[in-house]
Design brief:
- This protein is an alpha/beta fold.
- Helix 7 links the parallel strand 6 (180-184) and strand 7.
- Helix 1 packs across helix 5 and helix 1 (16-35) packs across helix 13.
- 45% of the residues lie in helices and 13% in strands.
- It contains 13 helices and 9 strands.
- The chain has a 5-stranded parallel sheet with strand order 7-6-5-8-9, with helices on both faces.
């Protein structure tokens, strides 16, 4: 398998075999890291990390992974560069290609990262757009595979805003890997029909399936993975909280949902999560709407079934695999 020089913009661009190769490489790199065996053969190379939205996991994962591989990193924060203000994406791509061996980009529309990749002469990695979060998918697939031992036929139910980056990406990831994806939410938050149709076609080839339902009991019954995300994503206006809380409260992941799924079920979340009022925004929203929890209850978040921190660690091992595999 040779992925040298390839961009990593969305899982739709990769075959199931290529995704499996990246997961196997991540598992190998994780094992070596745990044993203290260095893998730093990218010494002397450098990567640029562009973040037009904030981040904890993705930024740290790229920085630690790059340093482990022997590389230098340059972080461009949401305000501290010329990108999009004084300089076009096409020009930025060509400037950075002269100094770096790879470019990570987190921002708004998917078309921006696609444009960056079109003009860059080095691999471009999508660190989250409004539409897709592909590096998160590798971490999630690795976490599921580590827990169950396999991916094929795993049933994953996503609850919440399924039209955005996480719902879209999980649907694609499940379709690619022969898994059964269910979006369990109110119909106005189902993923776009075009992407659903595309994923159904992929699933028909891999033995997976795509189901959309607004019925919580039917949608979560027997699920192996219950997955949720914040109800309001980065970059969305504050005004949408009212409609989201109203529409999505029936789809909160609570003990009843987990019990309905069954004892085999694990809980996953890309994080950050609103599971209590201990954050600034959490406290503010709690006070404004009189609620104590949002997409997941604290009980489920803190339970034995919750693998959220294993999942977060796997961001680093999988991002390391993406860089190791694609840097020429
Ligand atoms: N899951 C994730 O992408 O987290 P950050 O926003 O902290 O990078
Ligand atoms: N949907 C969330 C995912 C964060 C990792 C957002 O875009 O803010």
């Amino acid at each position: 398998m040779d992925l040298k020089g390839r961009d990593f913009l969305k899982l739709l661009d990769f075959t199931p075999e290529e995704i499996t190769y990246l997961l196997d490489l991540a598992a190998e790199l994780k094992d070596k890291k745990k044993k203290g065996i260095p893998v730093d053969d990218l010494r002397g190379k450098n990567v640029a990390l562009i973040f037009e939205k904030t981040s904890t996991r993705t930024r740290c994962a790229f920085e630690v992974a790059a340093h482990d591989l022997g590389m230098g990193t340059t972080y461009l924060d949401p305000t501290g560069s010329q990108i999009g203000k004084k300089e076009s994406i096409a020009d930025t791509a060509r400037v950075l290609s002269g100094m770096f061996e790879g470019i990570e980009y987190r921002g708004f529309g998917q078309e921006i990262v696609e444009e960056l990749a079109k003009y860059a002469k080095v691999p471009v990695w999508n660190g989250l757009t409004n539409e897709f979060h592909p590096t998160q998918m590798l971490a999630d697939l690795l976490t599921i595979r580590e827990h169950f031992g396999y991916l094929k036929d795993i049933r994953l139910t996503y609850m919440g805003d399924a039209r955005y980056n996480m719902g879209n990406s999980l649907m694609v990831a499940c379709a690619k890997m022969g898994m059964h994806f269910t979006a369990c939410t109110t119909p106005e938050y189902f993923p776009a029909k075009e992407l659903v149709d595309q994923c159904k076609e992929i699933a028909a080839q891999t033995g997976g399936s795509v189901t959309l339902t607004d019925d919580v009991t039917a949608g979560t019954k027997g699920a192996d993975v219950i997955y949720t995300d914040v109800w309001v994503s980065m970059g969305e206006p504050d005004e949408v909280w009212t409609e989201r809380i109203k529409a999505l409260s029936p789809y909160r992941v609570n003990r009843t949902v987990m019990d309905n799924a069954g004892p085999q079920a694990i809980f996953m979340h890309c994080l950050p999560a609103f599971h209590d009022l201990k954050t600034k925004i959490g406290a503010h929203i709690g006070e404004r709407f009189g609620i104590t929890e949002m997409e997941v209850t604290d009980e489920v978040f803190e339970s034995e079934q919750s693998l959220v921190f294993e999942e977060a660690e796997n961001r680093m091992h999988t991002i390391k695999a993406v860089m190791a595999a694609t840097i020429a």
